[in-house]
Amino acid sequence: MEYRKAETDVTERSIAVFFYGLFMDMSVLQQRGLDPRNPQAASLDGYDIEIRDRATLVPHAEARVYGIVTGLTHVEIDTLYAEPGVLEYRPEAVVVILGDGRQVPALRYNLLQVTSTHRNTAYVIKLLELAKTLAFPGAYLDKLQRLAQ
Length: 149
Fold this sequence. Notes:
By secondary structure, the chain is an alpha+beta fold. The chain has 4 helices and 5 strands; from the N terminus they run βαββαββαα.
C-alpha cells in the first residue's frame, strides 16, 4: 500500500491555543521566538480562573473566563511548555467562543493539580493590566481586581 505525503507537515500546521494567563500577551510569545497567528479575544464557559504561582482554570458551571486564542505549531507549543514553571501544564481540548459568537475548538493548557496555596499577587496585577489592555468585560476585570487584593 502506498501512502501520499501530506502537503503540510503536521509539525508545521497551526493549532488553535487558548491562553488565559500572561501568555495572552503576544509580545511575550514573540520574545520566545514564537510566531502566534491570528490572535483573537475569546471566552470559555464552565471554568473559573484560579491564581496561585500562575493561573489555572477550575471547573465551575456558571463561570466564564476570557483570554486569547491564537495559532501555534506543534513545535512552538512544545517549546513553550518545556519552559520551567509551565512543565506541569497539560493540554485539554475545549471549545472557545470568539467575539463574533463563533465557536472554535482549541487546546487549553492547564495544571492537573493545584498544590500551592500561595497566591502570586504580582502575577495577578500583571494579568489585570493585560486584561484591561485587551478590553475584557468589566465584571471579569473586577474579578481579577479582587484576586489582586
